[in-house]
Amino acid sequence: MEKNYRAEITGVFGDPVDGNPTGVMEEAAYEACGLNYRYLTLKVTREDFDDAMKSIRALHMKGMNLTMPHKITVLPYLDEISEAAGIIGAVNTIVVRDGKLFGENTDGKGFVQALKNKGVSLQDKKIVILGAGGAAKAIAVECALEGAAQVTIINRTKEKAEELAQVLTEHTKARAIGLKWEPEQKIPADTDILINATSIGLMPDADAKPDIDYDSISSEMVVSDVVFNPAETLFLKEAAARGAKTVNGLGMLACQGALNFTLWTGVEAPLEIMEETLRKEFEVGYGETD
Ligand code: NDP
Predict the structure, then answer these.
(1) Which of 69, 86, 164, 285 lies 20 to 30 angstroms, CA to CA, from 172?
(2) For residue 174, what is the DSSP state?
(3) Longest pairwise C-alpha distance within the chain
(4) pLDDT band with cut points at 50, 70 and 90 for residue 290
């Protein structure tokens, strides 16, 4: 049989992108599965985005991740997008299928998968989300599509919380509420799942935590954080101290990477290897993970 030396290309377009850790876990997964795939972390400015998009077909790439500032700009370039990506209005993953570009948003799906891996279902649940940015929107839409009964968005800028609640009301069956974030915000007692979807607590500000009344967290709640470095944030530690079950952002990031891996390769992802690779990467890069 003739040898095939040609690598399949995947990667990410972004600017800034130097600090994006995704390539480390994807390359570890390709190697573990013996796949001749590469994941390239590529700086692409707004001005060069059109040329970069042309390179996907020209170089016969398998797919790409998109990060700031391209997640919305990419929409007109795509032949098809998933239901969730359409509602969110942003795409973080392109998959090339028969020369056509399919757009998906795996941010929210990674979150849902991380919960499922811990035995937590979204069906009929009451969700409270702190924040109303890109991550919050992806998570809110995916939770609603997964059957959550109610999604409450609490945000510093009230208008953004209300706008996101409006999107959910228009496109999903979930009851949606947008609220202004008050000082020492109380979490409603009937909350099933509480999520920090802000960047508060992210390295190097690991001493920071969202301004909520931590005593309003109960042991009945599941508490989750999108912040992945450190994996065990102060927010999660406070929740765990109140007996809540916690799900960290590192798991979400690994699940998102695993979903991308499978979309591009058609192979089941080695999730544990991906999560462990990230954990080690953060230990080396920042000196502590918890
Ligand atoms: P955005 O900039 O789109 O949104 C940030 C949100 O956080 C806004 O709602 C903002 O409120 C709020 N916020 C920021 N600082 C404060 C503060 N001091 N007090 C109150 N609210 C604050 O960011 P993203 O949604 O894209 O990203 C958020 C985090 O999610 C990042 O840390 C990112 O790394 C992480 N993430 C993790 C993923 C994972 O797989 N684990 C995947 C994707 C993202 P306002 O609207 O008032 O400005």
Answers:
(1) 69
(2) S
(3) 68
(4) very low
Ligand 1: list residues with CB < 6 Å.
107, 110, 131-136, 155-157, 160, 198-200, 202, 226-228, 249, 252-253, 256
**Which of 199, 226, 235 has most ligand 1 atoms within 8 Å of its beta carbon, as the pocket-test mutant?**
199
| Residue 61: partners with Cβ closer than 8 Å, 6 or more residues away | 8, 9, 10, 11, 55, 96
Nearest protein Cα to ligand 1, atom 20: 156
Neighbours of 281 (CB within 10 A): 16
Task: Compute the distance between CA of residue 45 and CA of residue 15 in angstroms, rounded to an integer.
Answer: 6
CA distances from 260 to 22, 52, 63, 245 (A): 10, 19, 9, 27
Task: Return the higher-pLDDT residue of 47 and 290.
Answer: 47
> Which atom of ligand 1 lies at the shortest distance from residue 156's CA?
47
- Residues with a catalytic annotation lie at 71
Which residue minimizes the CA distance to atom 10 of ligand 1?
131
Q: How far is the CA of 226 from the centre of ligand 1 (A)?
A: 8
Query: Residue whose CA is closest, atom 26 of ligand 1?
Result: 134
pLDDT tens digits, one per residue of 109-136: 999 999 999 999 999 999 999 999 999 9
Rounded to 10°, the helix 271-286/249-265 angle is: 130
Closest-CA residue to 256 (of 17, 78, 12, 9):
12
- Cis preceding-peptide flag for 21 (omega within 30 of 0): no
Distances (CA, A) of 198 to 60, 155, 180: 36, 9, 14
| Ligand 1 centroid to residue 153 C-alpha, Å | 13
SS3 content of the chain, % helix, strand, coil (to 5): 40, 20, 40
The pTM for the full model equals 0.95
